[in-house]
Every structure is written in structure tokens, then in C-alpha cells.
Amino acid sequence: MEKLREIFQERFRDGYLERVLYSHDMGVIPAAVRKTFQAVPEAVVQPQTKEELKELVRWAGEKGIPLVPRGAATAGFGGAVPVKGGIVVDFVRMKRIVDFNAEAQEVTVEPGVVWKELDEYLAARGFTLRVYPSSYPASTVGGWTAQGGTGYGSYRYGSFRESLVEVKAVLADGSEKSFAGDELDLVYGMEGITGLIYEITLKVMPQKADHPFLAAFDNLAGLNSLLQKLENTNIPLWSVSFYTPGYVELKQKVAGDEMAAVPQGKFIVNFVLASPGQEEVRIFREEVAKAGGKLLDESLARHEWEERFYTMRIKRLGPSLVAGEVLIPAMRIADFTAEVEKKFDGKFVFEGTFASADQVAMLGFMLADERKLNFPLLYANSLIVNDIALKYGGRVFALGMYFTGYAEDVLGRSLLQKLLRFKESTDPKGILNPGKILPPSLDRHSPLKALQVAMKGASLGKSLLGGLGKLMGSDKSVVPKEVRGLPGEMVEESYVCAQCGFCRPECTVFMPEPWESNSPRGKWYLINEYAKGNMELDEQMATSLFLCTTCKKCDTVCQTSLPNAHRWIGLRPILNEKGFINTGLEMVKDNVVKSGNFWGVPAEAKQWLPPDVEYVEEGELAYWPGCWASIIMKNMPQNIARIMNRAGVPFVYLGEAEGCCGLYHALGGYTEEFAEKVRENLTNLKQRGVKKLILSCPGCFATFTENYPEMARHLGLNWDIETEHVVVFLNRLLEEGRLKLEKPLNVKVTYHDSCHVGRWFGFYEEPRRVLKSIPGLELVEMAHNREKGLCCGLVASFHSLAAVGFSGQKRIEEAVATGADYIVTNCAGCGSQMNFTSNAMGVKVKQKDITDLVAMALGIEEIFDPTEAIRNYMEAAVKLLAPSCVMLKAKYRQQG
Predict the structure, then answer these.
(1) In Å, how far are 262, 271, 338 from 252, measured between CA atoms?
(2) CA–CA separation, 316 and 369 (whole Å)
(3) Which residues make Cβ contacts (< 8 Å) with residue 405, sequence separation at least 6?
């Protein structure tokens, strides 16, 4: 392995925790089946160049060690799962867009490019994808090329194979090969057994406007004739998909009111037209009605279209799923669904997507619980679905690892023979993804003979097993409510996690160092493995579970709506109890205990109140600036104090009682210290007669709003103080006519949504209304804004200075792209990060707090410039925290 360390350096890992995280995909299989192959690799590498791939395959060839290519592991067919150990080749860092040819309507990309990100790139240039998979938010172009398949847009453009122009790969002997024309069949859908893909060229099309329609049908019998009529009238139908009644019922249980208007007992069909004209819409409506369909409300159609990627929301009801996916001739879908419905009493439900005008991809689910004794028996039911598909002229959707016995049915004899010859001539040692596509009977290197025996055994007994599964369906869970010190709810959610990977491209700590241990889904997998007793909690696992900025970006895209950020915070007291301490947060805790503030500076350093500001000692409304603002960004409290004076709003200045809210006690899991801080601050506020707090710091706002009431109840105290963040307060003052912003500023600005004001509480429009009320100010949006806004990354400083730098630079780059003069913030932490980073990068755009601009528009001239203080404190923080951070590997001190 030393050679691999030399080639890949920090992009090589062989620790057990990381290897376990790369031993699976989305699929959940019975433990007895999993024991038939070696899923845990010996190491994981993340190449960045074609040259590294060539070195890797030459090394693997000499050693005879298998190489297993991996995109985002968003499928469940086992294509990315090792079966003979070896090296997992994770393409996550090969994500350049190499070339875009608008005239030819083609784009060339590296394999690690995520579909969603590619589509955003194309949209900025007036183009879009012809087809894309349902895993679009997370899956990669290389992954879909290797897996093969159909998706949205396939009704019009067929499988992804029809959109491929050229695929370049490194073969097992280290040579390069370009696959085009008929030769694409040797690489498309082959799971990397013929070569490691390093570049893909695909067809795209001009941007279109999606116009979704949702219609309810009693059955599917007339759907094909309806589609034929639409084709004959040249309706621009781009995508067609549908839900069976059972799937609708499960969606309604999960979605509640959002799906209440969808009729039960009906097949719900989603039609998407591409940029239709009014006459085409009229004809479409008429034809749907003639076919017996009832069009549902357009807002509901739009909602369901926006939800199209979230097929696994129903997993919350499981918490596991038995899944099956087959291709059925379009003319037989009514027969197929009817037989499956009868066979499983409606328990196996489907979402169907037209793979072409003639074929339908049927993705089916049956609710299950892998902790129950009947799970292996229910798992066999997916094989019954395969048989029913074959009966009606269909086939399995993909071969992967589990269905290699269907290779001839899927590929055809001619292609299979051609594949065998190519494989034997280019990879005689069988090092490229052994055990995939080719059945053991034809692949002498396949390590899956035992697996195939197990699958055949399940196939022979599947009817019996299916019946036993129903009889055993009421068995109690093997796992008790609380497991190994983890709350039962958290353990349950670790089974609910779909492992879809939608969280990965969004995660602030994953993006700069894209290892599974840094991802939210990686955390859930580790929690699940710990709960099962398969792994122990050690320093490496504690580090992974702690890595989170609490930005909640993962929460906004989670397929199963898991409260990720809250759970990671809730883990920290448990980690502390088990002896794992984050050294950076421990320093902050000590600072707060000893000096009363985050930075550990003397009380006089917190003096921010200017002599010209009027305040009261007691009253119903008080102002709380927070440690960062009062010490570093003094402009924020000074501005708001002067603004309140201008608006005639008396406020309580807390003086020496203006301590720390205790946010970092909560983030560090220091429950006792946080309880003491709540008691202290509540006492001080009550003594002043305070009933409402105006807060500058989003972290303080979140802590007082969410954590204080809960802790106060725990302590037997009465928390009845209202909280309001400054951006909401300013908007209210403007709406009430108490502020007159009359001085034109003549600047262009872009607004940065801080996580704790935005995603935590949803205050997106209030600050924008404030900015738009300033004369001469032009507001432009960054590429990612509102709930999609990027995290500044500053909280990552306790475990990852790399994430801090990466996040700050990425956000400033977005601000620069807008042409704005200022990036406007509402948070002292975000403000410090944006100020420091913009100056370090030497770019035009500079940071301003929202109160700076309001104060300027009011004609207030004395505005503190925090730039020097920010630089001094940020540089000091880097030196202080550097010993606690080694890239993304937090240093933990294990007590005892």
C-alpha cells in the first residue's frame, strides 16, 4: 500500500472506519447474504487525473488486487460494492467540466460531476440535460454511465445510452481507449469491468420550460392509447411517470396535508410538456379528459414535479424497504401491476417512469424492518417481482452484483460474447470490479459463486418465503428502544436514512474533503453500525460524528426529512459522557467559564457602547449583541443602538451582565455549563424587567429561542422572554414607519443568508425588504441564496481549518460573480469570515453588515470599521485552533 500512499497522499485512506463506509451502496441486504462476499475494501483512493488512474491500474495489475470504481453509490444493485476486498476508486474529485460545445449541443465532463451541478452549469448557458436520473441531486455522470439506465426525459430521448457520444477509459493494462458508436455497448452499463472511465461526452439540448400536469386515472389500461394520440398531435411530451394507488397511499401517510388533495385508489400520472404553446396545452387537456383522466390542480402538479427526486420519503414508514426495479413493455404495464397487486395484497407499491415510448421502468417498494426476523424472507419477494416481469416480456432493470444470472437476457447473447472476448483480452487477471455483470459460470475470476447459490436458493423457495414473511410480519424488533447509550429515536432514524447521498454535495464539511466519514449519510451509517454492535465508538468515530457546522443544508435536501443538525448536536453530550472532547470547543468553554465570553478577553474589551447612545437600566426591551459583535465587530451593536435611538425605541443596556449566551457550551455538549449559563442570564434579564430581547448574533438568537426554553423547563424555571433578530426588528421598524431611510447610497450589494437566521428560522425576505428600502441600493442575488445559500464555514474552525478556507473562498467567489460592491451579512461570525476572506483574496467586493447600510441611509456617520480587529482575531484564532485541527481530522482528547 505504500505505493498508493505515495501516489495519492492525503487522498488515500485505509483506516477501518473509512473502509466500512465504502463497503456498501443504497441497498440493504440480509446479513447472511452479505457474508458470502468480502465487501470491506483494503483501502480507498480518490484520483484527480487520468495519469493517476494509469499508475493505479498498473500497480493493481502487478499485485493482482481488484479495483472497484465508485461514483456516488446511489444505486442498490451492488455495482459499487467490493466483493473481493481490493481498492475502492472513488471518483468524487474528478469533477471538472472539460468542454462545452453549444453548436454541437454536447458537453464533456469528468466522471465525478454531479448531475444537478452539471444542469446548473448548462442552465447558465441556456442549455439543459436531455435525460437525467431520479438520483440527480447526488449521482454522477460517470456513475450513470457505468450503471446504465433511464430517467426523466427518457419518454422522449430513451435511455442515457442514446445521449452518449463518447466515453474514455483507462483499461486494465494501463492503456487508454475511446468508446464511441457501437463500441459504447462495451462500457455503458458495464459497472467499470471493462475500464475506469475518466471522461464522458454527452448530448444536451436548449433550455426548456417544464410544464407538469397531474392526472388521476381509474386504471392504466388506456394510458398507452392516450400517449399515442398525443404523439400523433405533436404534443411536446418530454417525460411521463406514475404512481400506483398503494404508492399514493404511502406518500399521503408521509406528506400529510401536502398530498391530501390527491384522490385515493387512483393511478396518478405525471405528464411533463417541454415549453408547450397554449394550443398544445388545450389539446393535451382535451385528450386526457377523453381518456378518462381527471387533471388535478396545477399547484399540486408543480409540487409533485418538484418532489420527483424524493421517491424514498416513504422509508420513514419502514424504516427499511425491500426494493425491486424492472423494465416492462408499455403495453403490459396494466397486466403487470394487476398481478403484483394481487400477489402482495397491495403491499408492493410502484412508481413507474416511461423509459421510452415503448418501455416502462417500474421501481417497486415494500415496507420492511431489517431488524425483524422476517426481513430475509421479505427480501425474497423482490425475486417474485422479477419473475412477474419476465412473464410479461420484461426484465431486471440492471445486473450489478445480484442479478448477473440474467446477463444474457439483459445484454443479448451477441453482446455478452463480445464482452467476454474484450474482457479476456484486456483484463486477463480480472482486476476491474470482479463479480459484476458476468455470471460466475462465465467469469472464472468471479468470487460470487456462493452469492449465486444463495440467490438461486431464494429463487427456488421464494413463494414459500414470501408466505412466511407475511406470517412473521408482526414479530417484534430485535433491537430494543435504547441501544448502547443512544436514544431510541436516533437509532430508529439511522435505519430510516436512505443513504441516497443527497446530503453530500450540500455538506459544508464534506465539500472540501469529500470522504464518506465527513458526510451526513456517513454519520448515520456509523450510528447504525454502532447500534448493531458491529463497530465500537473510538476516537476516529467520535471525530466523524462531531464534524458538522450545524448549517442545516443537509436537512433541506434529506429524502427522509431527518433532523440531521439537531441530532449531531444531541450526540455531543453523549460523546462527552463517553470521554471524547473536542479540544477547540473545550478551550471556548473554559474561556466562557473564566472570563464570561467566547474569546477569553477581559471585560473592558467588550465595551462597545458609544457615549452618544441613550439607554435605560431597566425595561421590557433589551439588546443582546453577542460575544463576536461586542468584541470584534463593534459596528453591529453601535449601529443598532443608534438606530433604536433614531426610531425612539428605548432599550436596556445590560453592561457587565451582557455575558455569553452559552451557544458553544451547547455545541460542545457541555450540558452542566450550559444549564448554569441559562440560569445566570435568565436571572439577570428578570431582574431588569426584560420581556423581549433584540439580538444581533444569529447563534445567540437560535440559542435563546430554541435552547433556553427547553433548558429552563428542565431546571424548573419560567422562560417567558420573547426574542427577535435584528433583521426582523429592522423590517418591523420600517413597516411601522419609525425609520426613514432617505440618504441614497448608490451601491450594488448581494446578501448572504446566515444559517441560523435563514435555514433555522426562515427569515429570508425581511432582510431583503430592508435592503430594498434603501434609496439608490441595487440588490443582486448570488447563485446560491435563501434556503440554498452557502454556509460561511466558520464554525468548522473547531475541527477543520480547511473547511473554513474553502467555504469562505467559495462564497466570496459567488459574490464577485454578481458584480456587487458589498456582500451584506447579518452575523458577526459570517461578517468576520467574509471580511477576512475578501481582503485576503484581494477582490473588489467587500463586506458590510446590514446595520452599516441602514445607518448610512439614516445619515449616521460614525460607523466603526472592524477590518483590523477581524484580521487580528482571525489570525490569532488560526494559531490557537491549528493544534486542534489537522485538515478535516479533529484532534480529540480521550479522558480517563
Answers:
(1) 8, 20, 21
(2) 11
(3) 439, 452, 455, 456
The upper half-sphere exposure of residue 893, i.e. CA atoms within 13 Å in the direction of its Cβ, equals 11
H helical segments located in 580-707: 583-595, 627-631, 635-647, 663-668, 671-687, 698-702
User: 368 vs 135, 364, 385, 478, 523, CA distance in Å?
Assistant: 22, 13, 16, 13, 22
Q: Which residue has the cell 468548522?
A: 796
In sequence order, what E strands does 229-358 have? Answer: 237-243, 267-274, 294-295, 320-329, 349-354
235-267 pLDDT, tens digit each: 999 999 999 999 999 999 998 888 888 999 999
Instruction: Give the span between the Cα atoms of 427 and 195, in whole angstroms.
Output: 9
| Residue 440 identity (one-letter amino acid) | P
Q: CA 814: distance to chain centroid? A: 20
Assess contact for 217 and 289: CB atoms under 8 A. Answer: no
Written as nine digits, the cell of 610 is 458609544
Cβ atoms of 849 and 633 closer than 8 Å: yes
553 contacts: CB under 8 Å, gap ≥ 6: 503, 506, 507, 508, 755, 759, 791
DSSP line for 818-851: HT-SEEEES-HHHHHHHHHHHHHHT-S-EEEEHH
| Residue found under cell 431527518 | 562
pLDDT band for position 809 (cuts 50, 70, 90): very high
Rg over CA atoms, the chain: 29
DSSP 598-611: TT---GGGG----T
Task: For the chain, report the end-to-end CA distance as a whole number of angstroms.
Answer: 34
Enumerate residues 6+ apart whose C-beta is below 8 A from 671.
573, 576, 665
Residue 459 vs residues 408, 437, 441, 452, 649: alpha-carbon distances, Å? 18, 19, 17, 10, 76
CA-to-CA dists, residue 195 to 136, 141, 413, angstroms: 24, 15, 21
pLDDT digits (tens, 9 = 90+) for 41-94: 999 999 999 999 999 999 999 999 999 999 999 999 999 999 999 999 999 999
Amino acid making up residue 529: E
Residue 25 C-alpha cell reads as: 451502496
Helices and strands (DSSP H and E) totals, the chain: 36, 29
List the alpha helices (DSSP H) in 268-380.
Answer: 278-290, 298-306, 333-343, 375-379
Answer for the pair 483, 574: CB distance below 8 angstroms, yes or no: no
Where would I find the H helices in 50-92? 50-63
Distance, in Å, from the CA atom of 222 to the CA atom of 356, rounded to the nearest integer, reads 17
Query: What torsion, rounded to 10 degrees, do the Cα atoms 149, 153, 155, 157 define?
Result: -80
List the grid coordinates of 870.
Answer: 477581524
C-alpha grid cell, residue 204: 444536451
Cβ proximity of 747 and 823 under 8 Å: no
What DSSP string runs through 163-203? Answer: GEEEEEEE-TTS-EEEEEGGGGGGTTTSTTSS-EEEEEEEE
Asked whether the beta carbons of 254 and 313 are under 8 A apart, the reply is yes
Q: What is the mean pLDDT of the segment spanning 796-804?
A: 82
- If residue 559 lies in a helix (H) or strand (E), which one and from where to where? none
DSSP 152: B
- Residue owning grid cell 474533503: 513
Q: Looking up cell 455538506, which residue turns up?
A: 507
CB contact at 8 A, 643 and 879: no
Q: Of 486-500, 589-603, 609-623, give the lowest mean pLDDT range.
A: 589-603
- State how beta strands 621-624 and 580-582 pair: unpaired
Distance separating alpha carbons of residues 292 and 272, to the nearest angstrom? 18
Q: Are 314 and 367 in contact (CB under 8 A)?
A: yes
Beta bridge partners of 760: none
Residue reference for cell 452542566: 672
**CA-wise closest residue to 114 among 751, 545, 758, 557:** 557
For residues 884 and 584, is the Cβ–Cβ distance under 8 A?
yes
